[in-house]
Design brief:
heterodimer; A: 260 residues; alpha/beta; Rossmann fold; 6-stranded mixed beta sheet; 8 helices; 27% strand; B: mainly alpha; two-stranded antiparallel sheet; 13 helices; 73% helix
């Protein structure tokens, strides 16, 4: 008995072929308001392909995407972004030679005086807002006027995530946000994700780290060979079942898998 | 190497490193160069190198023209581009500007009907033609996706051809007095420094500058952030072209002639000044203040060699070495950052 208004993102028979390769086949996916879900699956299972379709990086071969009840077609990442879908990609989309506020506000600067490309920037306001945003994430960056390129991987990832989180987006997608991070930095990123949950911002998390997935999300979608093979409530399953679904083997050989 | 999680020292060390020494160290190079020529001057020529008004004036005037060009090139290199066409563009825009600046006393003017015009006309004509040349560069690079090196190499050849075609190779001279004033006295220096201040402001405090640095730093990130990369490249190259036009006005006024052979190798002097001034050829880093010092270093070396009576081929050899050294220094500091 799902109320249609509750669903923020839905795909219907979403399919992507690269030549003869069926990278994604008839994916039917739903995401409710405020829900945090994970997409898991082996390499080549179609996770990233799926994300590329809904973020406008690529256009699906067939099938439909509904965002907030409307059928949408994103021709570029920018269009998806304008609709309110923010993504944090594996390779950080930050400008290393700019400081934190400049990165946070890139493309949507606060202005003192508006005059097309020659508009004068309101650096004070951007610095102030950047401080507020980063305070919420509890990440420690000693000097925001440092170039992002001089910062640690965790700090940079937090800037990238804050960037997405701070612009009142309607949906955030994170592709392996902690893959390259240390323990402490991973914890900080996970705290940001929990903060988003409290704020009711829906999230799609792609992760290979099943422990992290169980810690963070409500529901897990399992992809295998380009198909969605299951959606399970995180609280009602265990790592063993998920690994079975990922690999497609039903016997109980996974108990000691270091995957979990 | 440095533990980034430590809080206190991190801030002071980093901000100090980011700000002070970059321009200071270039300034030290400038002072060192002046000092060397000063010492050599007393030993070899038995007179002061720098405390000589006439020589100083010549240095400053020469520098102003390269300087105006170098400002345009600085913003292009910050955007991770390059422009090889500035010297040729100067020749062509100079001829166009000069052709509108002739006096009616001269009977064989390019446009006999357009003599004794207000001085604003040639200035605007020069800058406008510069905009067009830069706009062609920018369209080829931004919209046709041609690498900057190739696109501007084409313009280097084509603009020189245009310059020859425009007056069939003959010089243009006999200017109205108002035009001749533009290149005399300290007016070129005033034009250079005013332009430098304006572009320092543009690059530092406006969206124009922010996007220029962003594109040079990470074009992909800039695109995802919603910046119109193509339009911005077009704009930056167009504005640079306008600056070449302005430089051409000053140059033709200073030499009192415009000719198709003018500005030969200026593009390399300008690029050298920018690179010596600390702007990274990798893009994303650089400042107008550094370029001003870079231009000064180049000017001091050029006139220093003349002063010591050393042939100009040695000057070129030394310039070449300095450019390579500056790029090596830049790459060294980039590598150090990457390995941190």
């Amino acid at each position: 008995m799902n109320n249609q208004d509750d669903i923020i993102l839905r795909t219907e028979n979403l399919t992507k072929r690269y030549g003869g390769v069926h990278a994604l086949e008839e994916a039917n996916f739903t995401l409710k308001r405020g829900e945090h879900v994970a997409i898991v699956g082996d390499n080549g299972a179609g996770k990233s392909t799926f994300v590329r379709q809904i973020t406008g990086v690529e256009q699906p071969s067939s099938g439909d995407i509904f965002f907030e009840g409307q059928r949408v077609e994103f021709n570029s990442p920018l269009e998806a972004r304008e609709a309110g879908i923010e993504s944090v990609f594996q390779d950080l989309a930050l400008c290393n030679d700019l400081d934190v506020p400049s990165n946070l506000f890139l493309g949507r600067e606060e202005l003192l005086f508006k005059f097309g490309p020659f508009s004068i920037l309101d650096e004070k306001k951007m610095m102030q807002k950047a401080k507020e945003v980063l305070e919420r994430t509890a990440i420690k960056i000693p000097d925001l006027s440092n170039h992002v390129g001089d910062m640690s991987g965790g700090q940079r990832q937090c800037v990238a995530i804050s960037r997405s989180a701070s612009f009142a987006s309607k949906l955030i997608i994170m592709d392996e946000p902690t893959a390259a991070l240390g323990v402490q930095e991973t914890t900080q990123v996970e705290n940001i994700i929990r903060g988003l949950k409290e704020q009711g911002v829906p999230l799609i998390l792609i992760s290979h780290n099943l422990r992290q997935v169980f810690n963070l999300v409500d529901k897990i979608w399992v992809f295998r060979r380009g198909r969605i093979v299951g959606e399970v409530i995180a609280a009602e399953t265990d790592g063993n079942e998920i690994v079975s679904m990922i690999t497609g083997m039903q016997d109980g050989v996974h108990e000691k898998a270091s995957y979990i | 190497m440095t533990s980034s999680s430590s809080t206190g020292g991190y801030k002071t060390v980093k901000s100090w490193k980011n700000w002070l020494p970059k321009d200071i160290s270039i300034l030290m190079v400038l002072l060192g160069t002046v000092f060397i020529f000063e010492v050599l001057g007393w030993f070899i020529a038995e007179q002061s190198f720098i405390f000589n008004t006439q020589r100083l004036t010549i240095i400053i005037l020469q520098m102003s023209i390269i300087g105006i060009i170098a400002i345009g090139v600085t913003q292009i290199i910050i955007m991770a581009g390059i422009d090889l066409s500035s010297g040729s563009a100067l020749a062509f825009t100079g001829l166009v500007a000069a052709s509108f600046a002739q006096t009616s006393e001269y009977t064989r003017a390019v446009y006999p009907a357009l003599t004794d015009m207000p001085v604003l006309l040639p200035i605007i004509a020069g800058i406008l033609v510069g905009f067009v040349l830069g706009g062609i560069n920018g369209s080829l690079i931004g919209y046709a996706g041609i690498p900057p090196f190739i696109a501007t190499l084409g313009m280097l050849v084509a603009a020189r051809g245009l310059a020859r075609w425009y007056t069939s190779g003959s010089q243009v001279s006999f200017f109205i007095d108002d035009y001749a004033v533009l290149g005399s006295g300290i007016i070129p220096v005033i034009i250079f420094l005013t332009t430098a201040m304006a572009f320092h402001f543009l690059l530092r405090y406006t969206r124009y500058g922010r996007y220029t640095y962003a594109i040079g730093s990470n074009e992909q990130a800039a695109r995802v952030a919603g910046i119109n990369i193509r339009a911005h490249k077009l704009l930056v190259y167009t504005i640079a072209g306008g600056l070449y036009g302005l430089a051409a006005v000053v140059e033709t006024s200073r030499t009192l002639t415009a000719q198709s052979g003018a500005g030969m190798l200026y593009e390399l002097d300008a690029i050298a000044a920018v690179v010596i001034g600390g702007t990274s050829l990798m893009g994303g880093k650089g400042r107008i203040t550094g370029t001003i010092i870079g231009v000064c270093i180049l000017g001091v070396i050029t006139s220093g060699f003349t002063f010591l009576g050393i042939g100009s081929f040695y000057t070129n050899i030394v310039k070449g070495i300095i450019i390579v050294a500056a790029v090596v220094a830049d790459q060294y500091s980039n590598n150090k950052n990457a390995n941190r």
